[in-house]
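Hi P.,

Sorry for the delay on this. The queue was packed all week, but I finally got your sequence through. Input first:
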Amino acid sequence: MGIFVGALLNNLPPLLFVLLMRDFNLSFEQVGRLVLINFTTQIVIILTSSRPVDRYGVRPFITAAHLFAFVGFLLFAFAPRLFPNHPYWALMIATFIFSIGGGLIEFLISAIVQAIPSDAKAAAMSLLHSFYAWGLIVVVLGTTLMLNIVKGLNWHYIVVAWAIVPLINFFNFMRVPLAPPIKEEERTPTKELLTSPFFLLVTLGIALGASSELAMSQWTSTFAESVLGLSKTTGDLLGLSVFAALMGVGRHLYGNYGKRVNILTVMFWGSAFAALCYLVASLSPIPILSLIACSLCGFGVSLLWPGSLSVAAERFPNAGSTVFALLAAGGAAGAALGPWLLGLIADNVPSSFPLSPLRVAMLVGTLFPISMMLTLAAIRRRQTLPKGQTSV
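Then the structure:
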């Protein structure tokens, strides 16, 4: 449920982008800025919380995370009505509040699972993050159903309905058993992580992986409706839902059979496949083919985030929550910049350009998975070196 709440916080607002643009006359960049605020806030919270978490334990922070999510969603739903003269400012403030919860959830859930004794940590991490994908599907299907019921009106109550989930999990985490933290004298110093070229490469990789994943998932709904001319229901169900399903399948498959395959190899070819999907989505003259490419991209990016976590955790097993905090910050940076850059590019494409603005933005987005491939090659090279040995 914790990873589901993370999926809810990151993906519900983009499903409402078209409605927000309609109701409050917002631009592509302004709705993209909400994504930027979300993940920028997560970065700040992640980077400032790892040491207090190691000192005071996980429970007070994971419960507070769900409370922030609940309160933030309530404000997101009703702030525009409470502040009708400044609705966009109200949306930004509400986004900031629920993003505090999202930041804490992002690295604490992974740290909680990593702390559970297991001989298959990478598989467990992949299986955990598969529930992010299943959560995304539930969010898309549930939101689509509710939007059809209210006919696009009173979307505020849909946000309120989803706010119940983090409230329930707030009480769950007050009593769930948690593994004890690593003792401070046994913990890998943060300085060792930040001065490790291997760790910095993995951090860059998770940022690029997050950009590859989120730039596609955050814009698929709007892309299908405003560019491909498909209905919102078609775009959400055949585009975003299938994207999430294939992402979940990829993570679930590795969770069950991952012991037999090198995670970096899978991530490399997944990145290549994602780059191909970006190209087809942006350039295909056939709308349904573009939508299929958006959907298939979910399989390509499925292991880029959890795979990065597993690679770093295996290299630094005694880093505690810090390794997940730093990686989550890198991932959040990529998740913030990727969708925002696509929105910024779309707003600045000349009207005379032969491709529509969002198609141009999607074409530029191809650089995310291509850069990920180059980063993975560098990580693979350093992984074969003895720890501490340097390489040009």
